[in-house]
Design a protein that fits this description.
This protein is of the alpha+beta class and 113 residues long. 27% of the residues lie in helices and 35% in strands. The protein contains two helices and six strands, in the order H-E-H-E-E-E-E-E. It has a three-stranded mixed sheet with strand order 2-1-6, with helices on one face. A three-stranded antiparallel sheet has the order 4-3-5, with no helix packed on it. The protein is elongated and about 50 Å long.
């Protein structure tokens, strides 16, 4: 379950921002998680609650914006949406796809007091 380590990294980001911007409480952490990132949004919510206890992010709500996987098909020269790696192009059936989006996971924004 690598989500626990990812949540520890998110708490570090939140604490660093709190020091830089002088806020005392985090109400919401909004994450962008790509469909190809191998990160389970529900596991992130569960792990974040455990990792954030006794930190500035204690009690914060995790909001997840799920981003689609996108690839460039070299055979038909189109940008196509894919659900997972190594699947064929939904337009032409080619497997010559270059992933262009959907692998990311990032803190998009924080709602703070």
């Amino acid at each position: 379950m690598h989500e626990m380590a990812l949540c520890e990294g998110i708490v570090e980001i939140v604490e660093e921002e709190a020091r830089r911007r002088s806020f005392s409480r985090v109400k919401t952490v909004c994450l962008e998680i790509g469909a190809l990132s191998h990160v389970a949004p529900e596991a992130m919510k569960f792990c974040f609650a455990a990792v954030a206890a006794r930190t500035i992010a204690h009690g914060a709500v995790i909001e997840v914006v799920e981003l689609p996987g996108v690839a460039w098909c070299m055979a038909c020269s189109r940008s196509v949406e894919i659900a997972q790696r190594y699947e064929p192009c939904p337009c032409c059936g080619s497997f010559q796809l270059q992933v262009t989006a959907g692998e990311e996971m990032r803190v998009k924004e924080l709602e703070v007091d």
